[in-house]
Structures are given as structure tokens and as C-alpha cells.
Design a protein that fits this description.
Oligomer: single chain
Distance between the termini: 63 Å
Strand content: 15-25%
CATH topology of the largest domain: Rossmann fold
CATH architecture of the largest domain: 3-Layer(aba) Sandwich
Number of domains: 4
Length: 495
């Protein structure tokens, strides 16, 4: 059997956005991903391949290093493309060199994909540059713990004091007091040398303790900061209060649940995480196109007979055009019809297909579509409405009342997703805010989760009505019924 290929890839320091394009490409091509505790779960959970966790945490090892080496070799020997995903950079205290040696000895092809290291990225997210013209023109990175098999006389390689240098200790949290003491007692560091501890750097759970070598151990204990963490020592630490930015973001420290479908969650998740939130994607609906396409296919076959096409969701646009293309047709056949989109997101979905809607109402609800079409005169007009099976009746009934001939064709169902794990359920129950972008997301969420202590944030009045109908209150409601409007409403609620 032909041997496979192994990528020894750095996942970055924790923020999934800091993974490199090359590492992400390798993940997408992988047959098997072997990943560490420090690799963000967001990087692997959606992958459609074999995933094996080999993390080490607090001295508890899922597998020993030799067993990990054997596992990588075995999977590659089966002809698989393997990604060994490691936190940070695989060659910076990551034992990637040992794994590469093992692969070389076994005659297995491998490639190294460097990653963003925590030693400079975690300080950057804490507002601490590792170099600065006024404080440090060099830096030194030191491991903060001994090898598991170290002899009694082997110790951490403590550096000598240099006022123009920044010192970063990785994996040294357990030895924090000892490191601070040794630096002062044996290596000439003044007691008032600025020092900081950064736990879970670059993630929304980042915690920072700042002080001096004389106080840092007590300060970290007071704030209950634990591993994984890095220790940074030197004058650059004094810049933190002036330069802190990440933990000053308006949503930092907030856990916010996004209930949209996994395919549509990225826009909202990206906005919220960019504002510092810890985003938990918890899709409460799945979009399932109707297996029986005969009705929509017949409508597309007679598309020239319709005066209006009305789209009330991005999903409807996507599924309609899939059928249009499957039948050998494209946007050119729509030239005789006017097109309405319920809001800007739906409009953008049409524009991706080179179709510009004739009508987008001022308010993004079905009733507003009816009002806008009334002003244009739709008496006697033939209207095609491809929609969800669960869509409200307000739009077709409103158009019928105006004298239009409405052909409503359900082209997809919104159904509950696969049951989540209890671990995920617990994380959701502990969230600060849950966002709802449709009636379906709200109804399914409460059916799945029951009660939550979170604030409930709604994209608009229709969704809010559904939330209240389940016996829950609406704490936040967007005044503009869009993703941007929902985010702005959340920000206003925290002012």
C-alpha cells in the first residue's frame, strides 16, 4: 500500500482566525486529523474526516508522545493524508521535531506548516509588545518546566537580567512563584521588574494578571489564573494599560449563542467575535430541500408566465436557483418578471447570481412586502412565491387580498438538527445572550434547551412574538431587522 502524507501544522495560539491559510487548506484535504488540547475545537468540529484527540492537560496525557508518534506513522502507512494539528507552532516547544524525526525514520513524506506562536501573539492580545524601542530591542523565549525525564540536577534554563530584553516563559504556570523567585535571587532581576501572566491568550476567555516579579505570583493567585498561560517579564509589560485592546472590546467576556444554521452562522458569528464575544454556534434548524421538486420544476418551466417572483429568505434564493440551473436555465429567463426580496441579506443572495431585485421594502417583514407591492399595483398579477413549508401565511394572504394570483410553492423544510451533546447543552445554558434570527430558530431552541438564564436577543417583531409564545421574554430586539441591526441592539443593551 502506498504511504500517505503527513502535515505537521501549527493551529495558532487559540483564536481560530489566526490559523494560516496553508494549515486550513491542509485540514480541508485531510483524511485524518490528530489534534492537541490547545488547538481550537472550532478548527476541527466541522471537518468531515477521522478526528483523533491526543491532548495533554495538567499532566494528564491522552497518549504518551511515543504512542502519538506511532499513531501518526500508522495512519500515514494506511495511505491517508494526515494532519497533526498542534497548538501554536509545531517547532516551538511543540515536539514537532521529534514527530518529524519519527516520520523521516519510517520513510513517510511530511511537510511542516508553521503556526502563529503564543509567545508573541498572546502578549499582543494583552496589549504587550515583546519589543519596543523604549523598552526592549530583543527577546528570549524559555520553557518554564523541566522534561518529564529530567534528572534532579537539571533545571529550567533561567536567563540573566538584561534591562533591554523581554523574557517569555512558556508552560511555566505551575512554577510561577519559583521562576519569579529564582530570577530575583539568582539572576539579578530587580524585584520591581514588570511581569504579567496571560492565560488562554487570544481567546475570549483570556485573563491577564500584571504586576512585578515581587507580586505576580500573588496577583495571579488572587485572580485565579491557571494554565495554559505564558509569563512575560520586562519593561514592555508597563505598556499594557495604555495598549490593551482585546479585553477592552465591548463584548469581551460575553458568551453569545448563535442559533442560525451552520451554513449561515458565519456572518453573525464573525461580527460578534470581532467585538470580543465568545461565540458558541448552536444551530437549531437544518435546511432540507424538498425531495419532490415537481411543483417548482413546473413553475420554472412556465417562468415566463409570472409577473412577480418574491423571495423571503436566502435559503429560498439558493434552492430556487439550484433547481433553475439543474433544469438547464439561468437568470436570463427571469427577464420578464419583477423580483422582490424581503431584506438586504436576501437581496445580496440574488445579486450573487447577477439578479438585482426591483423591490426591497423599508421594513423586512412580510407585511411590508405586501404594502410595497400594493403601491405598485398587483391586481391580476401572477406571483411565484418559493418559500419554506413553515412560512407564515401573511404574505400570500395579503397578496391574494390585493387581487394577485399567488402560486406558493414550499421548496424546503426547516427541521431540528441532530441532538447536541450534554456538554454543548450545558455550555449553552451558561451563555449570557442567545440570538434568534427567525421564528424557527426560537421555537426549536426552547424545544431543545428548555430554560436558559441568558438574555434573549431577537432580530425583529415576528421572531419576538414566537419567543413570547414559548413563554419566554424578549430582552433585546433589533430596530432594523438585519444581522447588523441585531448586533447593534446587543451593543445598545450593554451601554
Amino acid at each position: 500500500m502506498k504511504k500517505g502524507m503527513v502535515y505537521l501544522a501549527g493551529a495558532g495560539p487559540g483564536d481560530p482566525g489566526l490559523i494560516t491559510l496553508k494549515a486550513r487548506s491542509a485540514l480541508e484535504s485531510a483524511d485524518c486529523v490528530i489534534y492537541d488540547h490547545l488547538a481550537s475545537p472550532a478548527l476541527v468540529e466541522a471537518l468531515n474526516c477521522e478526528k483523533i484527540y491526543v491532548g495533554k492537560q495538567g499532566g494528564s496525557h491522552t497518549l504518551s508522545q511515543s504512542e502519538i508518534n506511532d499513531l501518526i506513522v500508522r495512519k500515514a502507512s494506511e495511505g491517508k493524508t494526515v494532519v497533526r494539528l498542534k497548538g501554536g507552532d509545531p517547532f516551538i516547544f511543540g515536539r514537532g521535531g521529534e514527530e518529524a524525526e519519527e516520520l523521516a525514520g519510517a520513510g513517510i513524506r511530511f511537510s511542516i506548516i508553521p503556526g502563529v506562536s503564543s509567545f508573541y501573539s498572546a502578549p499582543a492580545y494583552a496589549g504587550i509588545p515583546v519589543t519596543h524601542r523604549d523598552h526592549a530591542d530583543a527577546f528570549e523565549v524559555v520553557t518554564g518546566h523541566r522534561r518529564d525525564d529530567a534528572s534532579e540536577d537539571e533545571d529550567i534554563n533561567f536567563p540573566d537580567f538584561d534591562p533591554g530584553r523581554t523574557f517569555v516563559f512558556l508552560m511555566g504556570m505551575k512554577n510561577l512563584a519559583r521562576i519569579a523567585g529564582k530570577l530575583c535571587e539568582e539572576r539579578g532581576f530587580p524585584l520591581d521588574t514588570p511581569a504579567a501572566v496571560i492565560s488562554r491568550g487570544t481567546t475570549p476567555r483570556q485573563r491577564v494578571a500584571a504586576g512585578t516579579l515581587a507580586t505576580i505570583a500573588d496577583e495571579a493567585a488572587r485572580l485565579e489564573i491557571g494554565p495554559p498561560a505564558i509569563i512575560i517579564v520586562g519593561g514592555v509589560v508597563s505598556l499594557r494599560e495604555r495598549l490593551r485592546w482585546f479585553d477592552a472590546l465591548p463584548l469581551f467576556g460575553k458568551r453569545i449563542v448563535v442559533t442560525r444554521t451552520r451554513e449561515q452562522a458565519s456572518a453573525l458569528s464573525g461580527r460578534l467575535s470581532g467585538l470580543g464575544a465568545e461565540v458558541l454556534e448552536f444551530p437549531t434548524i437544518r435546511i432540507v430541500p424538498k425531495a419532490d421538486t415537481s411543483a417548482i420544476d413546473a413553475a420554472i418551466g412556465a417562468i415566463e408566465s409570472f409577473d412577480w417572483l418574491v423571495f423571503t429568505s436566502q435559503n429560498a434564493v439558493g434552492i430556487f436557483f439550484e433547481r433553475l440551473f439543474a433544469l438547464g436555465r439561468d437568470a436570463r429567463c427571469l427577464h420578464g418578471a419583477r423580483i422582490a426580496a424581503i431584506g438586504p441579506a436576501t437581496s445580496r443572495e440574488l445579486e450573487k447570481r447577477s439578479v438585482r431585485p426591483d423591490l426591497v421594502p423599508a421594513e423586512y417583514v412580510a407585511e411590508a412586502v405586501v404594502s410595497a407591492m400594493e403601491t405598485l399595483g398587483v391586481n391580476g398579477a401572477r406571483v411565484l412565491l418559493p418559500c419554506a413549508a413553515e412560512a407564515r401565511d401573511a404574505l400570500p394572504e395579503g397578496l391574494l387580498a390585493l387581487g394577485a394570483e399567488v402560486r406558493r410553492i414550499p421548496i424546503y423544510d426547516t427541521v431540528p438538527p441532530e441532538p447536541p451533546t450534554e456538554e454543548v447543552m450545558e455550555a449553552v445554558r451558561e451563555a449570557d445572550i442567545v440570538t434568534f434570527t427567525s421564528s424557527s430558530t426560537a421555537g426549536n431552541f426552547f424545544a431543545i434547551i428548555g430554560q436558559s438564564r441568558a438574555l434573549h436577543a431577537s432580530i425583529g417583531p415576528i421572531t419576538s412574538a414566537k419567543i413570547r409564545g414559548t413563554g419566554h421574554q424578549v430582552d433585546i430586539e433589533a430596530s432594523e431587522y438585519t444581522i447588523d441591526g441585531l448586533v447593534e441592539a446587543i451593543l445598545r443593551s450593554l451601554d
